[in-house]
Structures are given as structure tokens and as C-alpha cells.
Amino acid sequence: MFLKIGIVLVGLLSVTPIMLFVERRGSALLQNRLGPNRFGPQGLLQSVLDVLKFIFKEDRAPGHVNKFYFSLAPLVVVVPALMTFAVIPFAGNDFIIANLDVGILYCFSIASLGVYGIIMAGWASNNKYSLLGSLRSSAQMISYELTLGLSIVGLIMIFQSVKLGDMVSAQGETLFSIGGIDVPKWGIFLQPVGFILFLVSSFAETNRLPFDLPEGEAELIAGYHLEYGSMRFALFMLAEFVSMTVASALLSTLFFGGWQYLPGFSWIAHLFSDGNIAVTYLVSTLLHGISFVIKIASFMWFFVWVRWTLPRFRFDQLMNFGWKVLLPLALLNVFVTGLLIYLGVL
User: CA-CA distances (angstroms) from residue 141 to 5, 125, 208, 318, 319?
Assistant: First the structure.
């Protein structure tokens, strides 16, 4: 148990410096710039300097803030983000911190607590821009959580379980074969509309472009974390990247087979099946973990790609899109899925 917790914590805490580098070099690539390239090979160690700067920078709260809630808010944001990963199997169903029977419900319930930290940060900052950013965030997250929850109802109806391990195992089966190629029973083939709804709602839940209205640099300067600096600000940044990682992990788990092998990995595993059970299990577990990490990394890059490609919505457009487009579509998807199950198609 402690080994699993250590692996997950080290992985999640390492996400921030890695993604800082990816964000900078990725944006430079998309905008035909160089990006940071001075410290370390290709600027790889620049993120290390940023982490050291956050650690050693003087941490002072402005005089006009409510100091207790101002200091508490970053923890209220980052702790639920870290806790959410506890029920996600990352290298086989044996490698999971808490194998709960209500895994997906736990994810959504814990993840929804992060909005309290954002509201707390905006109110305690005693700044009109911070307060407006926190109010935007609460309205945005509450609105899109409805679509986020409804987007996976179809998968729950098909797999007959809310346990993430069972859902991943079910996706290891073959859906159909084309020209001798087996198409896995991944959630994206069973619920393509649910995948799109979950993906769009994940952007809104993580406050990423084009749904980063709570930060809105153009009109709110930095939004709810305007008054923060040093490690307090670093915790908000950590929470954002961890939330992106959890969203990517859930997308991989629910719609892309989770830790199930990527194409070609089963052939590699077969090469090491020499009869030694320990070696076979070790290689299999390692390949499962690598497959899962590649899927997560692909979605993390997609987050970066979208950020530096699409413009920000207006707030009225964001709310109308959530309530008038995504929510009716999610309800229709549940209805159609139930109809197809009743007719025996799914």
C-alpha cells in the first residue's frame, strides 16, 4: 500500500515541472518560437530552477487579506486533486491504492471539493478581481459537472459497474474484428458522444483554455490567485496540473482501455513469456504501466495543444454552451444508450 502511494505521489508531484517544460516548449513549437533553451539541454532544467525559485522565494501574505483562509485555500484545492487518483488502476487491477466498489463516484465527489478552495481564495484575497474569478469558477464548475456526470452514465449502463477496475477489465475484450485485426471494446467505440462530452467538460472542470474564465488574464489579471505568490501560488499551479493528469487518467481509463496494452505491446509481452511466472508478471505489469502513461501523456499534450490553438470563450457563451448544448446532448445520449441496450444492440 505504501509503495503504491509513493509511486502515485512521486508521479503526480513530478507532473508540474515536466508540464512547465512541455507548456513552454510546446507553445514555442506551435508559435514558431524557440522557447526556453539556455539552462540545460534544450532548456530542460529551466523547470528545476522555477521549482527552486518557488521554494526559496519569500512567502508573505498581503496586509488586506484574511490570512487564515488565504493560507488554507491552496491546500483545499490541491489535496482533493491528489486524493482523486487513489481509485484509478494504473498498472493492472492489483496496482490501485483503494479498490473501491464506487470508484467513479468517489472520483467525482472528491474532485468537486476543489471548487471550495477556489471560492475561499477569491473571498479571502479581499480583491474584486479575485472574487469575480472565484464566482466565475463556481458557476462554471457546477454547470459542467452535470454534463461530466451524465457523460459516463452510458458506460455505467453498458458495463453494469461503477468500479473502475471492472470497467477497465471489460474493455480488454474484443468488440469486433476487421481484416484479422481485433478492435478492443474500448469506451470510445461504445460511447463516442459520451467521450466528446467528457472531454469538453474536463477542459471546463480544469479551468483550461478555452474555458479559463476564472483566470481570464485579459480582464481579471489572474483571477482567483491574483494575490498569491511563492509556494502558495505554486500549490495552485500544482493543483491545475494534477487535475489535468486525473482528467487524462479518467479519459484513458473510461474510454481507451486504461492500462490495457497498446497495439503491439502484447507481442513484446509474449517475447518475455519464458515460463518464469515472476518475470512474466513483472514484464506484463511494466508494459501495462507504460501503456497507461503513454495514454495520459497523449491527453496532457492535447490539453497544451488546445490551450495555444483556441481562443477564450466569453462567459455568456460558456454558460449557454454548457446548459443549452452539452446538457441536452448528454441527456439524449443516455436515452439513446438505454434504447440500444433495450433493443439488444449494446
Answer: 28, 20, 12, 11, 10
Cβ-contact 143, 115 below 8 angstroms:
no
Q: Which residues of 153-179 are buried (b: 16+ CB within 10 A; e: fewer)?
A: bbbbebbebbbbbbbbbbbeeeeeeee
String of b and e for 32-41 (b: at least 16 CB within 10 Å)? eeebbeeeee
Greater pLDDT, 38 or 193: 193
Where are the strands (E) in 126-263, listed by range?
A: 174-178, 181-184
How confident is the model at residue 95, as a pLDDT?
A: 87
Please give the grid coordinates belonging to residue 92.
493492472
Query: Is the peptide bond between 192 and the residue preceding it cis, with omega within 30 degrees of 0?
Result: no
Q: What is the largest CA-CA distance in the chain?
A: 69
Mean pLDDT of 265-289: 78
> Could you tell me which residues are beta bridge partners of residue 176?
183
Give the H or E element holding residue 234.
helix 230-255
Gap between the Cα atoms of 99 and 335, Å rounded: 30
Q: How far apart are the first and last CA of the chain?
A: 37
Position 329 confidence tier, pLDDT thresholds 50, 70, 90: very high
SS3 of 191, please?
Answer: coil
Task: Please return the burial class of 342, using the count of CB atoms within 10 Å of its CB with bins 0-12, 13-18 and 19+.
Answer: exposed
Q: Is the pTM above the cut of 0.85? A: yes
**Domain locations in the chain?**
59-342
Q: Please, are residues 191 and 158 in contact by the beta-carbon 8 Å criterion? A: yes
Helix (H, G, I), strand (E, B) or coil at 175: strand
What DSSP string describes 99-151?
--TTHHHHHHHHHTTHHHHHHHHHHHTT-HHHHHHHHHHHHHHHHHHHHHHHH
Other C-beta atoms lying within 10 Å of the C-beta of residue 96:
22
In sequence order, which residues have a C-beta less than 8 Å from that of residue 209 and are 6 or more positions away? 203, 306, 307, 308, 310, 311, 312
Percent of the chain with pLDDT over 90: 35
